[in-house]
Amino acid sequence: MESRQAGRNRDNRRKRHNMRLTKIELRCDKRSRRRRARAPPAPERSGNRVTSIVVPGRNQPFNCGNQSGLQYPFWTSDREDCGHPDYKVDCGSGFAELNITSVKYRILEANYDSGIIRLARSDFIGGLCPKDLLNATFDESVLPLAPNTELLTIYHNCSRAFPQYVSTYVGDLPCGAGDGDDDDTISYYVTTNLSPPLLNGIRGQLEDFGSSCKTVSIHVSRPLLNALERNRTRDNLQRASSLDLTKNVRRA
């Protein structure tokens, strides 16, 4: 649990962020000119497990892990006044990683010209069925979701199998098939939001899933879900289940 002192420190960071945006630009600009880090290796481009986010740019870019040119809202321990309090990145693993509502993400790409930042959920990098699945929420006032973002719902570690429920919008998750996945688990996924009338015919099935499985919803892009519905391959499932967010933001 976060201590009272840690909570006060977090509140103080938020106040500084809200009150001194102009000073942030000047301070970061000077700091960047004084200290130029070595260029890191080229960004990882795996073709899957990606999350897209759009970002306002405020400060001079910096390097972290295998990423170069990172800007607001990201910051490191020596650049505390240059970013948003919730977007501190850790560079120690050779990658640029951050925790958002207790879920760790890895930055795969930061393109401030197009306004797109791609993130991967670190728990999905090792396989499709991590042991502890967590829901993650994003503060859209900082990084807003794109219009084509939807939810991929995963019903994980079910107590019994439902092979009769597999359909166009419901697929079985191949857990225990290697690549870091858990063994002997039964899991399913639903490729459309759970509220549309489209799913009225399988409400009973969804209730069975909800009572027998652990549930997590992941932000994904609709085009990747369409590809998964057309061709239910493991590769398409990896791409869809890993693309958590697609954000299109204008630079500030």
Quick overview:
Residues 27-49 are annotated as: Disordered. This protein is of the alpha+beta class.
> SSE string, helix = H, strand = E?
HHEEEEEEHEEEHEHH
Structural class: alpha+beta
* Rg, Å, rounded: 20 Å
The oligomerization state is single chain
Main sheet makeup: 4 strands, antiparallel
- Rounded mean pLDDT is 70
What's the total count of β strands? Answer: 10
Distance between the terminal alpha carbons, to the nearest Å?
34 Å
Poorly predicted residue ranges: 20-58, 244-252
**Hey, roughly how much beta strand do the residues contain?**
15-25%
Q: What is the helix content?
A: 10-25%
How are the strands ordered across the major sheet?
Answer: 1-6-5-4
How many helices does DSSP assign?
Answer: 6
Overall morphology: elongated
Can you offer a commentary on this structure?
By secondary structure, the protein is an alpha+beta fold. The protein has a domain at 149-232. The protein is 25% helix and 21% strand. It contains six helices and ten strands, in the order H-H-E-E-E-E-E-E-H-E-E-E-H-E-H-H. The chain has helices spanning 4-19, 21-34, 122-125, 203-212, 222-230, 234-242; strands at 51-53, 62-64, 67-70, 97-100, 103-111, 116-121, 149-156, 170-173, 187-190, 214-221. The protein has a four-stranded antiparallel beta sheet with strand order 1-6-5-4. A four-stranded antiparallel beta sheet has the order 8-9-7-10. Helix 5 runs antiparallel to helix 6 (234-242).
